[in-house]
Write a structure and sequence with these properties.
The chain is of the alpha+beta class. The chain has two domains: 78 residues, no CATH class; 70 residues, no CATH class. 46% of the residues lie in helices and 22% in strands. The chain is elongated and about 85 Å long.
Length: 156
């Protein structure tokens, strides 16, 4: 949905919100340049979200800005993911402590995801052993048992 800015006040609203502000006017469904001129509005164009400049930085939407061509575009600013604060027990929670907690959770999530893949591979190895048993192929059974042991060693 496109938003519009009234440059004289800096107000930003959707088309519907500007219609509500201008209830006393008859406004066409399609807004042309002349409609925008009468309402003293300018469109705010979408802009790609920039990549953060570093680790533990979020890029968030901010007020619109003028680009090099003089068009209003969506603005973005960087915010740190973590800030120091005092918890309910007046203990200071540092940025470093928050980063450690975040990284530990991320590593645990990665480990759990890897274990899911390994368990799927184990199930496949089990079915290969069962098929080899049914066919009486001792060489294939031994190969699959070795594969299965290697997979079990990877599980943490």
């Amino acid at each position: 949905m496109t938003n519009y800015i009234k440059p004289s006040t800096g107000e930003v609203k959707s088309q519907g919100a500007w219609r509500n502000v201008n209830k006393h006017r008859s406004i066409p469904k399609v807004w042309t340049a002349s409609v925008l001129e009468v309402l003293e509005l300018e469109p705010i164009f979408a802009a790609p979200t920039p990549a953060p400049s570093g680790d533990y930085i979020n890029v968030v939407v901010s007020d619109p800005v003028k680009d090099d061509l003089g068009n209003w575009v969506q603005g973005y600013v960087e915010r740190p993911m973590f800030v120091e604060y005092d918890d309910s027990e007046d203990t200071t929670i540092t940025v470093a402590a928050q980063i450690l907690t975040y990284e530990a959770a991320r590593l645990e999530k990665d480990r759990l995801a890897a274990n899911i893949v390994i368990k799927a591979q184990l199930a496949e190895a089990d079915s290969k052993i069962i098929r080899a048993l049914a066919e009486g192929d001792a060489t294939r059974i031994a190969t699959h048992v070795v594969d299965q042991a290697a997979l079990r060693a990877k599980l943490k």
